[in-house]
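Hi everyone,

Forwarding the result from last night's run.
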Amino acid sequence: MLETLSIQNVLLIDHLELSFSKGLSVLTGETGAGKSILLDSLGLVLGERGAVSFVRPGAQQAVITALFRATSPAALALLEAHDIPCEDGVLMLRRTLTTDGRSRAYVNDQLVSLTFLKTLGALLLEIHGQFDSLLSPAAHRSFIDRDPSLQKRLPALEEAYNGWQEAKDALLTAQGRLQKARENEAFLRYTLQELDALSPKEKEEEILCQERALLVNGAKYQEALERAHICLAGDKGALTLVTDASKHLMRVAVGEHDSFEELKRRMESIRLDLDDLAESLAHHLRGQNAGPERLEEVEARLGALRSAARKYHIPVGALLEFFETTKQQVASLTQGEDDLTLLEKKCSQTKAAYEKEAASMSEARNHVSERLTRAVRAELAPLKLEKARFEIALTQKDEGSWDKTGWDHAEFLIQTNPGLPMGPLSKIASGGERSRFLLALKVAFSSVSSLNLMVFDEIDAGVGGAVAHAIGERLSRLAHETQVLTVTHAPQVAAFATSHFVVSKQVNGNVTTTRVALLSDAERREEIARMLSGDAVEDAARSVADALLQKAL
């Protein structure tokens, strides 16, 4: 609920501190006294757009502060999601406007965006006038879904919808992939056949280039290899000398000189290494004897590999990977069809699960709608709309419009005169009828509302007498469920107030200021009498005021 509202330097208001209590608070006063400024200020602190013109002439900035006691689970969840502390549900909203056009918004002293402030404000209160969110069919289903029995169903419906969408997305992706593969099937099979014949190997280009370098420089390499081989394995080469040295050491008897054993092992190891090195040199010499035929083979192979790489616009080193990928793509043509069958089955199953949940939700919405329809109809006669009819039309949307909340489209329809067709509330009802319909809807829907405060701006405009009394009675009843603040010119409505504020204008020289005062019981009687008779309050008006107050008890 709204506990306090502080307004500084907004239009006609220099400084104002208002405290509110539970129940029905009414604001009365002469036209132009500044009642609308109070509602505009409340709108500003809840994220509505402001202008430099809102700043009181002569002041540098306007400041509006509202202290709420938040109980809405959605509001508390929003604060927690943005790491804004809210101890014991105490919520302070502050908005500043400066003459240079700057605007700042704070929630519990943390700077926030206007978008966030407006989102939070929508979870705390609604401000209703001649035009209301209930007039928009786009919002009608959300009002129905506030019912607790429907709120319990929404998570399962959302889960089913998400499962269906995931399966559908997977199916669409697989279909696209398979379609693309089918479009390229001839090319893929030809490519696979060509690469299979080429049979590229890992790092083949690098190996062939090294071999070609050896073959091209054959004479130079061969001379170096022959000389190295003679030095190592010739009659007087290193291998022969090391072998002779090893034989000399081997003549020493085992056990006679143990220190020789390590020398003998090292000498034998060197001999074996030299022998292996000599064999490697011999192997390379044999390779050098391959002749020009081998060079032609290497050149031809390199040419084939590079030609294929150019054809497919990839490096030679990527040919093997491309070969493997092409194999997989060709194999996926068959596998893809099998996968597609499984995905189609899963999509069908998840859609059926969603349809089951959506049908169940639709049936539950019908029950809630029937109950709400009866509740609204029960409010119409006392509001002098006894000839009017009201119904909630639920229709199934096209499949493309189904979402996580189901497939239902809801619209509030009315008939104001017998014989006329049912139609949208926004198009059929006149201004006064529309206000009364909105009030009937609010009263009927109050049991499913989680808002802390409802604000009505002259919802009784254009009515009087018994209708005004019925409006006041319903506002009072609505105030049992949530805090209600209303601006009114109807004494019948004012009589139902729990707290009654009067708004007045004071002029001192060239300065005009709006003042707001909370009335005592005696002052309330005088204000209601003034509303009945005008500035000159007579005893007859006071007697009627007494009657209205008594009737409102």
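The CA atoms of residues 434 and 532 lie 25 Å apart.

Cheers,
N.
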